[in-house]
Specification:
The structure is a single chain. The protein is α/β, with parallel strands linked by helices and 359 residues long. It folds into two domains: 239 residues, Thiamin diphosphate (ThDP)-binding fold, Pyr/PP domains (Rossmann fold, 3-Layer(aba) Sandwich); 109 residues, Rossmann fold. 43% of the residues lie in helices and 20% in strands. The chain contains 13 helices and 14 strands. The strands form three sheets. Strands 3-2-4-5-7-6-12 form a seven-stranded mixed β-sheet, sandwiched between helices. Strand 2, helix 2 and strand 3 form a beta-alpha-beta unit. About 2% of the residues have low confidence.
Length: 359
């Protein structure tokens, strides 16, 4: 293992290489453009392929092609580019093609600005493309987690033959922190028996990859098969991987539980500590996997906490999943900043103070 100082965008790129990714297709868009620049230099050094596509629509379908052949492949963009990915993501989910997609969120809607935001939650978690499908969505809160979750993303993409999204904000992408780089993964594409080979034109010996099912009965059967796979994924995260699903901080005796993901979770930890010094029993429950959402963790603390406060860099998106998880058992409040603004710990503390009845 090696300890180095890295920027978030570069950390995702290096983690992809360590995970065995040797193919990347993308298009520059701030605040994730450094990821392309990093991989443009690094991939040739490991006999990999970097290609700057003419646009995001081309990039996602190039990713589809490489994934169909069994390669560990990645693409990335920022919010407007992620919108252009949606059709291709639906195609890959339907054809069960693994890939990793990094979305470095910026302000919107429309072109918005290049400041950090969190308004892509619905697009990533609820799936912005057409049809019945799901993507696994990881939400790192540090540069180290951007490395660890990217490596996990490639493993889960292959394990379940499904696209996996790394949903991060522009603050994390641009900040620098010391990180520990793990040893490289020995990945062998030949082990994917389902992948298309050089002989795929030979119908008897080749594989066939498609998301087209013209008969409605056949498509319905396929959809229910995907649904069963998503249930398996949900059960796995709920039962076997809580450390990858959520993080809790001082929740055991908390009266009010704060929740948020990404860079907001780090601000919330400071708020919790300030609350405790002022005699307010606050705790932090941070989702690390946004789909499957850690429903059981919220239900657990619904038995002990009086209320929940969801904080986001948006007008409120994840808060809906918090409400669904709690199912009316406890009140859920929301505080947010939109358009690329990051709420300060002072702003959030004042909101908590009001909820606690201290003003």
């Amino acid at each position: 293992m090696t300890k180095v100082l890295m920027k978030g965008n570069e950390a995702i790129g290096e983690a992809a290489i360590l995970a065995g990714c040797r193919h990347y297709f993308g298009h520059p868009m701030p605040p994730q453009s450094e990821l392309l620049a990093y991989l443009a230099k690094r991939l040739p050094e490991v006999n990999g392929v970097f290609l700057q596509a003419e646009n995001e629509t081309a990039a996602i379908h190039m990713t589809y092609g490489a994934g169909s052949a069994g390669a560990r492949v990645m693409t990335s963009s920022s919010s407007p580019g992620m919108s252009l990915f949606q059709e291709g993501i639906s195609h890959m989910a339907g054809a069960e093609i693994p890939c990793v997609i990094a979305d470095i969120m910026r302000g919107g809607p429309g072109l918005g600005n290049v400041s950090a935001a969190q308004a892509d939650y619905w697009q990533a978690v609820k799936c912005g493309g057409h049809g019945d499908y799901r993507t696994i969505v990881f939400a790192p809160a540090s540069v180290q987690e951007m490395i660890d979750m990217t490596i996990s993303a490639f493993d889960y993409a292959d394990r379940y033959r499904n696209p996996v999204v790394i949903l991060a904000d522009g603050v994390l992408a641009q900040m620098m922190e010391p990180v520990t780089l793990p040893a490289p993964t020995d990945h062998t594409p030949d082990s994917k028996k389902w992948a298309l080979g050089n002989n795929f034109k030979e119908k008897k010996s080749g594989n066939y990859s498609t998301s087209i099912f013209k008969a409605k009965e056949e498509l319905e059967e396929h959809n229910w098969g995907l649904y069963q796979k998503y249930q398996v994924i949900s059960d796995h995260f709920r039962k076997d991987k809580p450390e990858l699903t959520y993080e809790e901080y001082l929740c055991e005796d908390a009266d009010i539980i704060l929740t948020g993901y990404g860079i907001i979770a780090r601000v919330l930890q400071t708020v919790v500590e300030k609350c405790r010094k002022r005699g307010i029993k606050a705790g932090l429950l941070r989702p690390k996997t946004l789909w499957p959402f850690p429903v059981e963790a919220f239900q657990q603390y619904a038995e002990t906490a009086s209320m929940f406060l969801a904080v986001e860099m948006s007008c409120g998106q994840m808060v809906e999943d918090v409400k669904l998880a709690l199912n009316g058992k406890k009140p859920v409040y929301f505080f947010g900043r939109a358009g690329g603004s990051v709420p300060s710990d002072f702003e959030i503390f004042n909101e908590v103070d009001k909820l606690a009845g201290r003003n």
